[in-house]
Design goal:
- The complex is a heterodimer of chains A (about 325) and B (about 550).
- With about 325 residues, chain A is mostly helical.
- In chain A, about 60% of the residues lie in helices and about 5% in strands.
- In chain A, β1 and β2 form a beta hairpin.
- In chain B, the strands form 2 sheets. Chain B has a 4-stranded parallel sheet with strand order 2-1-3-4.
- In chain B, α8 crosses α10 and α14 packs across α23.
- The N and C termini of chain B lie far apart (about 50 Å).
- Chains A and B meet through α2, β1, β2, α8 and α9 of A and α3, α4, α6, α9 and α11 of B.
C-alpha cells in the first residue's frame, strides 16, 4: 500500500510544531503579522499570474464535450444545458458545474456480477465534495467577523442558521464539524480505497491534512481551550486595517498554529492542484457552446500547411481517370 | 501476434486490484497484443515526419534522435503556448478518481495505468518537472518526474491504449478531456518519428490518393459500379451515380471503409438507393473520397492537410452543400475542427434539403450535414415509402459512436431513422448509450490485427451491454453510424456475443425503402432471403 500520506501528515505536524514553538519563544510578530501578509501577497501574485498565464494561451478549437442531444431540427428536443448552443445555455451549464458539481453527480461504479458488467450510480464522492466545499465556504464567510467591523449582516444571519442546533456553549457551528468530517471522509477515501490509494500522492494528502489541521485547531480554540476571542479579533482587525499589532498579554499559541496553517494553505494554492478553483472557469470542454457548425470559430495560429491539391492529384492519375470516364480538368 | 484466450477465460482474468508498486516505478509493459506496429519510413516521409528506420517497440533501445529530450521539451512548450486546454488539463486535476473506471480500456484490461487520471499523469509529471515552480523546486514531492527513455516508452504504450473517446471527460468535474492529452502526447511522439503504421499509412495514402485505403480513382468507380450491379439484381433498378461532376447540387463524402469491406458496403449501397429514390442531384468525388481523417490521431497539421480536400473539392465542383456519411471521428473533425481549419466555406449555401425545403441552420457556417440529419428530415416529411416489415427478422439495438455522441450530440437522429425503418428496436442499458456510450475498443487508429487483445478487452463494456439485450430481447443486429465500428464490431461480437451482426443505418433504410418501379424484393442487400420468403415457399 502506498503510504505517501505519511509524508504529508508529517509535514503538517512539523509545520504545526514550528508555529507553536515560534509563538512560545516570542516570534508572535513573525507568525501573527509577517507570514499572514506574505501568504496573502504570494496568493494574490501567484493566483493572478497563473490565470494570466492560462489566458495567454489561445483556445484554437471549440472542443465542447457534448452530454446530450444537439440542436438540429425542431422535432429533436435539444439538451439545452448539457449540449448548449447559446451563451445562455453555457452559463447555466457552468453555474451548475461550479455550484452543484453536476458532472461529478453522474459518477458511477463499475461492477462485475457473474457474466454481467453493471454501472451503479454512486453519490458519495459528489456528496463528500459538496459537503466539504460548502462547509469550507460557510466557515470562510463566518470568519469575516474577524476582519470586518461591524461585521456584515449576512455573517450574523449565517451564524444563526449554522448554529441552529443550539448545542453547547459557545453554540456549535455545523459548518466546522462538516468541514472536518468532509475532509476526513475525502482523506479516508484516498487511504482506504485501493484505486484511490494508487493514484494519490503527497500533493493530494497535504492540503487535506492542512485543512483538517485548520478545522481541528479552530474547533479546539472555540469549544475546548476557549481562547480569548476579543484579543484575537484585535489582532485580525489590525491585519485587515493594515494597522497590525500583537495584542497586549498575547494570544494562545494554538491560535498561531491555526493562523500559520491558513497562511500556508493560502500561499500554497497558486502552486498546486488547488488552482482547480480557477481552472474550472476556463475549461474549454465545458465553457464553450457546441455551435461550431453555426458560427465559425477562429484559431489565431491557424497554420499554413502544404496540401496535396486537386491538380497534383489529377497529374498523378489523369490517364487512369480518363480511361474510367471520370471527368478531368486538363485533357 | 499474441494468442487470444477464450472469451470466458479473458473475462475471468480481469482484475482491477492495483499493484503494490507505485505507477512511477512500473515502467512501460510492451505486451504482445496490446501494442501496434511502428510506422514505416515511407509513410512518415510523405507527411514530413522524422524517419527512425526499422524498429520494434519490443526492442530494448528505441531509435530516438540524439537531442530527443530537447525536442520533447520544446514541443511541449510550444503546445502549452498554443493550447489553453493543455495548460488547464495539466494544472487542474485533483485526482478525485471519478474518471478511473470510466475508461473501457481500464475496465477490460485492469491495467491501472489505463485509468484516465494516470494516463494523463504520465504527461503531467513531466509538465510539473519542466514547467512549474513547485515541480522545479520540490521535484517528485510535487509530483514531478524526469523525462527518461522509459517515459517515452510509457507514452507510446498508453497513448496508444486510448481511443480518444472522451467518455472520461463527461464525468470529470473540470471537464478534463483525456483525448486532448493523448492527442498532445501523440503529437510529441511524432516529433521523434514514433507513430504506428495503422495510422501513418492511411494518413499517407489519404494525402496522395484521397482516401485511407489508397484506392485510386478508377478503382473507386469500379467498386461503386459493382454495388450498382448488386442493387440492380436486388431491386431491378439501374443506378448511375456520377463522379467528380461539376454543377451537382450536393457533394456526398463517406469513409472509404464504406466502399471497401462488408458490412460497410451495404451501407454504401443504402446511400445510393436512398439518393436514387428521392432523385437527389449529387456527385461522388474520387479526390475527396474519404470521410474519415486519421490525421486527427496524428497531429493537428496532418488533420488539416487531409481535411482540406473536402472544401477544395466542393469549391471546384461548385456544389451547394456537402452531405456526409456515417462515420464517427469524421464527425468530430467536421463538427469541431473543419470550419476553423479550412473555412470559411462562403462559396457554398446554407444546406437546404431539395426534397423537403428544410434549411439546416445548425450547419449554417460549415455547410455540411450528417446523412441521418438529412434522412430523418425526409422521413419526418413523409418523403420516403418505407416498409419496415422487411427488417422484421432483425431485432436491432443501436451503438452510439463516441465522437458523434460526445463531440456533436447526434443522438436522436439515428434513433428516429432506425425506429421508422425497423419494427424491433431495443436500447442497451442507460449507462452504456448516448453520451455515456462505450467505444468499440478500436477507435483512434487502433483497429489493427496486432492489437487484438487490447481491442477485445477495450470493446468488452460495449459487447457486454449488447449481450444484455441479446439475452433479454433476442437482439441480433447491432446498428452503428461509424465505419470503424463496422470494421471492429463484427470480430468483437463474434468473440463476446456470437449471433449478433453489425449494420450501418442506411443499410436498414435501403432494405425498408420502397423505390418507384422496383421489382418485388426477395432478398435483402446481403442477398439473404427476406423474412417470411422461405416460409411462404413451403406452403
Amino acid at each position: 500500500m502506498n503510504v505517501s500520506y505519511l509524508y504529508s501528515l508529517l509535514a503538517v505536524i512539523v509545520l504545526g510544531l514550528i508555529a507553536y514553538a515560534g509563538a512560545a519563544v516570542g516570534l508572535e510578530g513573525l507568525f501573527g503579522i509577517f507570514i499572514p501578509y506574505l501568504a496573502v501577497l504570494v496568493f494574490l501574485v501567484g493566483f493572478i499570474n497563473h490565470v494570466l498565464d492560462w489566458a495567454k494561451s489561445p483556445v484554437p478549437f471549440r472542443i465542447t464535450t457534448t452530454c446530450g442531444q444537439q440542436q438540429s431540427q425542431d422535432f429533436f428536443k435539444q439538451a439545452k444545458i448539457d449540449n448548449p448552443s447559446t451563451t445562455r445555455g453555457v452559463i447555466i451549464r457552468m453555474i451548475l458545474e461550479i455550484l452543484l458539481f453536476r458532472s461529478l453527480f453522474r459518477n458511477s461504479r463499475v461492477e462485475f456480477n457473474g457474466e454481467k458488467i453493471s454501472y451503479k450510480w454512486v453519490v458519495w464522492l459528489w456528496l463528500f465534495a459538496l459537503l466539504f466545499h460548502y462547509s469550507f465556504f460557510v466557515v470562510v464567510i463566518r470568519h469575516l467577523r474577524f476582519f470586518l467591523e461591524p461585521s456584515p449582516f449576512f455573517v450574523g444571519a449565517l451564524e444563526t442558521v449554522d448554529g441552529m442546533l443550539q448545542i453547547g456553549l459557545p453554540g456549535l457551528f455545523l459548518s466546522g464539524v462538516a468541514l472536518l468530517g468532509g475532509a476526513v471522509l475525502l482523506l479516508l477515501r484516498r487511504i482506504l480505497l485501493p484505486k484511490m490509494n494508487y493514484i494519490s500522492r503527497p500533493a493530494d494528502y497535504f492540503p487535506l491534512f492542512l485543512i483538517i489541521g485548520i478545522a481541528l485547531t479552530g474547533i479546539l480554540m472555540r469549544y475546548f481551550t476557549k481562547v480569548d476571542v476579543v484579543k484575537i479579533k484585535e489582532l485580525t482587525l489590525g491585519l485587515a486595517s493594515f494597522h497590525p499589532g500583537i495584542p497586549d498579554g498575547g494570544v494562545s499559541a494554538l491560535f498561531y498554529v491555526h493562523l500559520f496553517f491558513v497562511s500556508i494553505l493560502v500561499a500554497y494554492i497558486p502552486f498546486s492542484k488547488l488552482m482547480h478553483m480557477g481552472g474550472i472557469f476556463l475549461s474549454p470542454t465545458r465553457n464553450l457552446a457546441n455551435n461550431n457548425r453555426m458560427k465559425r470559430h477562429i484559431n489565431p495560429w491557424n497554420p499554413d500547411v502544404k496540401i496535396h491539391t486537386y491538380d497534383e492529384y489529377e497529374d498523378d492519375f489523369r490517364e487512369k481517370m480518363k480511361e474510367a470516364d471520370i471527368p478531368v480538368e486538363k485533357e | 501476434m499474441a494468442e487470444i484466450p477464450k472469451s470466458e477465460e479473458m473475462f475471468e482474468d480481469i482484475d482491477h486490484t492495483p499493484p503494490e508498486k507505485d505507477w512511477e516505478e512500473t515502467g512501460a509493459p510492451i505486451t504482445p497484443g496490446r501494442f501496434s506496429y511502428p510506422a514505416k519510413d515511407k509513410s512518415l516521409a510523405v507527411m514530413g515526419f522524422p524517419q527512425p528506420g526499422e524498429w520494434s517497440p519490443t526492442d530494448e533501445a528505441w531509435p530516438l534522435p540524439e537531442n530527443w529530450q530537447e525536442i520533447i521539451h520544446e514541443g511541449f512548450k510550444e503546445r502549452l503556448d498554443k493550447y489553453r486546454s493543455l495548460k488547464i488539463f495539466m494544472d487542474t486535476c485533483v485526482r478525485c478518481g471519478a474518471c478511473a473506471d470510466k475508461c473501457h480500456y481500464f475496465i477490460g484490461t485492469g491495467d491501472p495505468k489505463n485509468m484516465p487520471v494516470v494516463r494523463a499523469e504520465l504527461m503531467r509529471s513531466i509538465y510539473r518537472n519542466d514547467f512549474t515552480t513547485a515541480g522545479k523546486i520540490l521535484g517528485s514531492i510535487a509530483g514531478g518526474r524526469k523525462l527518461t527513455k522509459e517515459v517515452i516508452k510509457e507514452w507510446f504504450s498508453y497513448f496508444y491504449q486510448c481511443s480518444e473517446c472522451r467518455r472520461c471527460s463527461v464525468f470529470c468535474p473540470y471537464g478534463i478531456d483525456t483525448a486532448e492529452v493523448t492527442m498532445m502526447g501523440r503529437e510529441l511522439l511524432n516529433l521523434l518519428g514514433i507513430n504506428i503504421n495503422w495510422i501513418m499509412e492511411p494518413v499517407a495514402n489519404c494525402f496522395r490518393t484521397g482516401n485511407h485505403l489508397g484506392i485510386q480513382p478508377h478503382a473507386f468507380k469500379e467498386m461503386v459500379e459493382f454495388f450498382c450491379d448488386d442493387i440492380e439484381e436486388i431491386t431491378g433498378k439501374k443506378l448511375n451515380p456520377s463522379f467528380n461532376r461539376k454543377g451537382a447540387e450536393v457533394l456526398f463524402i463517406t469513409p472509404s471503409g464504406d466502399y471497401f469491406a462488408d458490412p460497410g458496403t451495404y451501407t454504401f449501397m443504402g446511400y445510393l438507393m436512398l439518393f436514387e429514390a428521392i432523385g437527389l442531384d449529387y456527385t461522388l468525388s474520387t479526390y475527396a473520397s474519404e470521410g474519415g481523417n486519421f490525421g486527427l490521431f496524428t497531429s493537428s497539421d496532418a488533420m488539416k492537410k487531409l481535411n482540406s480536400k473536402m472544401y477544395a473539392e466542393a469549391k471546384r465542383l461548385g456544389v451547394k452543400f456537402i452531405l456526409g456519411g456515417e462515420c464517427g471521428h469524421m464527425w468530430r473533425v467536421i463538427n469541431q475542427y473543419m470550419d476553423t481549419m479550412n473555412g470559411p466555406a462562403d462559396f457554398m449555401e446554407v444546406p437546404k434539403s431539395p426534397i423537403t425545403g428544410t434549411v439546416f441552420n445548425n450547419a449554417a457556417s460549415t455547410k455540411m450535414i450528417h446523412v441521418t440529419e438529412f434522412t430523418s428530415d425526409l422521413i419526418r416529411h413523409n418523403k420516403l415509402k418505407l416498409d419496415p416489415s422487411r427488417n422484421d427478422h432483425l431485432k436491432v439495438t443501436f451503438h452510439d459512436s463516441c465522437n458523434p455522441s460526445r463531440a456533436m450530440g447526434l443522438l436522436d437522429e439515428p434513433r428516429y431513422v432506425i425506429q421508422n425503418v425497423c419494427n424491433n428496436f431495443y436500447e442497451m442499458p442507460e449507462n452504456t448509450i448516448r453520451e455515456q456510450t462505450f467505444c468499440c475498443g478500436s477507435g483512434s487508429g487502433l483497429n489493427n490485427e496486432e492489437a487484438m487483445d487490447l481491442r477485445l478487452r477495450g470493446g468488452l463494456p460495449r459487447a457486454n451491454a449488447v449481450k444484455h439485450v441479446h439475452n433479454k430481447y433476442g437482439v441480433n443486429m447491432l446498428a452503428c453510424i461509424c465505419a470503424i465500428d463496422r470494421a471492429a464490431l463484427p470480430p468483437l461480437m463474434d468473440y463476446w456475443v456470437p449471433g449478433v451482426d453489425v449494420t450501418g443505418i442506411h443499410e436498414l433504410v435501403a432494405n425498408a425503402l420502397v423505390m418507384d418501379g422496383e421489382i418485388e424484393r426477395t432478398t435483402d442487400l446481403r442477398f439473404e432471403p427476406l423474412n417470411g420468403e422461405e416460409g411462404e415457399a413451403d406452403v
